[in-house]
Records
---
Amino acid sequence: TIDVKPLPSGKPASFSGAVGTFSMTADISSNNVKTDEAVTIKVKITGNGNVKLVKNPEVVFPNDFDVYDPKVEMDIKTTTAGVSGSKTIEYMAIPRYAGDFEIPAIAFSYFDKSGSYKTIKSEPYKLHVEQGKGGSGSSPVVSNFSNKESVKYLGKDIRYLKTKDFSFIEGGDGIFFGSFMYYLCYIVPAILFIVFFFIYRKQVKENADIALVRTKKANKMAVRRLTNAGKLMKENKKEEFYDEVLRALWGYLSDKLSIPQSDLTKDNVEIELAKYGVDESLTNEFMDILNTCEFARYAPSQASDAMDKLYELTVDAIGKMENTIKK
């Protein structure tokens, strides 16, 4: 038997589940750029451990930068000694305004084999942004402060009072009260309120239907993925088989509980299943299957009958869940 111990308390804020021995390097493409030119930060995490499961460290760019999805490259090696390799993440952002900015230090935490949490930090980056050729003299100049508020000079935002070449028109009493514009001021807001009310109700109904559709299709999508996993099992593609079973389970739980996969964790899955009245033994079956898949992906070898058994357990667990959560 294998005794799996939970991680100790006192996790750093930057800890995302990495276990092993790691190192991190980070560098920026340039400290001096012009507006509308891209600046990139490349972070490389190297070590021995669950490299595939390492989440991207958070890079906090200034508020007025256009930030794009990071580009990720993996280089993983699996041997009898375990899993090792590297993960390279390239972050890209484009500054829109000139000024001096600071990108805070990038932090990465992991649980070391010595039994303690380790945190690696890069240096903060100072970034000077000059006005590009495409800008004009009236473009805003922005300063980034620690309280994340921006001060912008917009230019020509004050209009002076006109002191001559104008005249007043004398009006009689009740020139507005009882007029067409007077009643229009009541009618238009009332019409807009009614229109927005019905639009809001329609959106609520559509959102509810989307959640219902996702819930109903959960079993169908899981069966499709498990069918593919069965083909991989017959071809003896072990790592791909366990990956497909994991995708089937996480996708099924995401659709069934109406929770995005990015927000799913084992802890909140247990809480949500308990709210639906799922028996604790069935919940434990799901957790055991997830743990077995995650362990098997990095184990040097697994017997074929172990894959057969896990496949049957997964099909049986999803069938039980369908009978428990009916909506």
---
Amino acid sequence: MNIGIIGIGCIGSSLARDLKKSQGHEIYVHDNNADFLEQAKELSLADHYGDIKRLASNCDIVFICVPVRAILKVIEEILPHMKEGSIVTDVGSVKSSLYVNPKAMPKDVVYIPGHPITSGTNTSGPMAGREGVFKGRKWIITPDKSASETQVNKLKDLLDSLGANVLSLSANVHDEMLGFVSHLPHVMAFSAMQAANELDQMLDEDVFTFAGGSFMDLTRIAGGDPDMWRDIFLTNKDSILAACSLFSSKMDELKTLIENESVEEIHQFVNTAHKIKVEKFPHQENETK
């Protein structure tokens, strides 16, 4: 199968690594960043490099691995060159805003939005990718009625071959859930770094040198790509704001208990959270720092 990857950053290069390893595929890659393309060549991540029109006209499945607000622009660019019966998908973490009118698609070409749920990294580019990152991970797809069962299964079979656990959801449900479990933690991490820096200036002390494991865990993802997270915040605004409100309500609840020195209620609040954590994530080591 001929497979195209547009955007050879962390996710795109990880995808290329796994597809090359599985063999039986002809890999085409394109990136507007000439340095990334050169790195991809040095790493032998693909068979063909550079020409986006050639990629679109030759590939059976095209993965768009660019920031969310650039996805529709890339689709618009490649659609006139797509081969009949091909599939376009993406890896963006917001789905509701990515609507393509089926009537605008060439004959039998379909767009099936997708999102692999992987562990984040603070680095970007082809060097940041790694093999096996999708194995055992959820890969959500949000097909609409324009995609036939055959086309959906073709994409699912490819993702299954990477070891991914493929799930179909509605775009709205995807965005509401990811707004809380993925996007909200980034809001928290970015805000915690800003707040700690302000405290640093207020106290005229290097607050960060006193940070232990708990603060490091909380802020690990604050090193995320600014362009990517700007796009996610803007395109999933409603779900993120709803998540912030829900989270703030629980913080306010605990804050009130602390202000009132409600000993038993504070214990109950923390103990309830502890039990939920152990039940939902039993495989994780219980960190108490």
---
Amino acid sequence: MQTEVSDTRIAHKKFGLFYPSVSRPSIFIEGEDRKTFLQGIASQDILKQDEKSLSYSFFLNPKARILFDAWCGNFEDKIGLFPPADTREEFINHLKKYLFFRTKAKITDMSEHFREIRLVGPETISVLLSLFDNNFSGSSFRMLKNGGYVLIHPTSFQHNLDVGLQADLFIPIDQFETTQKSLEDFTSKKGGVLLSESSYLTYLTEKGIPLFPSELNDSFFPAEAGLDSVGVSYNKGCYVGQEPVTRLKFQGHLNRSLAGFSLEGAAFPKMEFPVTLFNPKDGNEAGILTRTSFSDILGSGIGLGYLKRNFSENGTELLLPDAQLVRVHSLPFV
């Protein structure tokens, strides 16, 4: 097995491989009502999603705050849902709340049958080419020769920013070691890297990508995370949380939004998140910090969080609770 690295430079220039300790759940919805069932609870327009395609969606509470985000893969006879890791039981229970007696849809949990591998970086597709099942000609959602599948994320994500290529591979358990060896041989030959958990999170932070549950939770709207353009349909019918989402889009304004922060030349201190950020001029709250990392590329501590509108200009100085100075930084960092 290759040695994990802490530096993300090669991943940004070529590609990086990451093995999460906990895989995303693999939940499948089958039956003739599968699409109409999800249409009433997901923020994306499931009815208009093409076969063999991937979409990104939110599952909201009635006040339109984020409960889960999930990737939705449209198979020929079922829909695969891939919510965040460690949410399997909670996510299935949420689905069951809306699965009424007469609904012809069935929830099947296949999480134990797959293990996940993640790829990031500009050469992601070249890594995947030898693994694709060419009889399944999807674009963002592809089957693999070993019976697994891959979710290829959109390169335009939060605030429509270019975050580069990413892919999640779901490998059948009995094929995992073979696929792992093949990927690591390719990585060694082509000069990619194996990322540790901390370096993978640093990579995502450098790209400014909001994550569940640090930035995506029931304190925030999708639009505040800059994800409504990729994860919300404003043209579909009713679903849980639709009314507040639509009202915010067409009649309201955002009081806060996702932002980046930097601590020049130093790592952020250990803190319990979220951390309040203060306006140095009057001591009033300016926003919150939700996660941090240290970027070797920038030689600085970096972080994500949410800022009130008046403080969003790049370079604005704010204070941590210990009075250390941080600056607002445009996204992505790298």
---
Amino acid sequence: MATITEIARLARVSTATVSHVLNRTKPVSAKTRRIVEEIARELGYSPSRSARSLKTGRSATIGLIAPDLTNPFFPAIAQAVEAKARELGHGLIIVDCHNDPDEEQAAFALVGEYRVDGAIWIPVREDLERIRLPAPVVTLDRPIEGIDGVTAAHREGGRMVGREIAARGHGSVGILRGPAAHYSARERYEGLREGLGDAVPIGWTVEVPFSLDLGEEAEAAILDRPVSCIACANDQVAIRTLQLLARAGRAVPDEVSVIGFDDIAWSHFIHPPLTTVRQPYRALGTAAVELLFRRIAEPDAPRELKALPVTWIERESLRAI
């Protein structure tokens, strides 16, 4: 098995330099890094994580605590987080909390047992008091006061939806708003109302989960309380809305328009393709990892909250009146 000593001899550098290249612990010139990495690949060098952990006091792993991996938004985020963590030489431990606050507490205990260097947290409930943080933490999508965070510009996304509905001359809108307990849902809803202004009357508003299970009240509103446009909490809610309307023989967008939020992969392939607001999945995951590594390196740095821009995506489920 290849060793650091052998790599150092062939690269004509010190073992310390090889260690810095492979563990990314100190800056090394691009030329030296390239030579060391090429020799390591040629020799089939594979570092021992346990040995590195004993030497550095770090596990070279981070955690991702997610609320619900059945929601396509969160696996897309997880993929971006894993890619950036791997680029920085770290593995990723993912825990799904199944939207259960008790499982969320257990998730923090679990990543603590694995001695992760830090964790990215998408909260089930935005309540820090009940959580014991075992390592540096960055929130993603749902900020919490006092903790670094990365989120999308949810309020601006909501404004986009409201302005587009108004610009197309709609006479009434039904709103399937997300859970009021979640920052992202609150921001989208407030932004939507701001974007609508006084131009479009709100026919009805029903709070729904971020899932396909809308509940009886929401289904009754969709089917029995006609409006010209339905603004949905996210794309899963919009897809379920399209399904209910299709079963009832209501044509989209000829009889009623439907708008989602997130731009999950399914949104492009359903019928009709869904008009929505795109969240920058890769940028969100990448920024969260970068912010976490900054916090690990600089534990006393000021708290930082990043809000990344969203994009209006027009397809075929929205029409002008």
